[in-house]
Specification:
Helices cover 29% and strands 24% of the residues. It has 84 residues and is of the alpha+beta class. It has a single domain, classed as 2-Layer Sandwich (Alpha-Beta Plaits).
Length: 84
Amino acid sequence: MYWVFTFPTTHLALKFDQVAKEENRDVKLIPLPRKVGASCGFCGKVTDKEEIDRLIEMCDKYSIEFENIYLIPEDKKKKPEVYI
């Protein structure tokens, strides 16, 4: 399983990715899974649950607005859940 941060715009998704790299955070920018939605088309993938709080703090610090954080289950038959 993994988590994804979703964003209202592509610009914010790219800013999230850039700042996360500068802050040495373990994040990867990926296409937004269809089951999650179709907001900007990109999301930040996180595989370490402990990174989530640090990334939320990073978003607050750098004024990066995100929409939601979803938990994506390994079982593709299960629907993603809103984590935050």
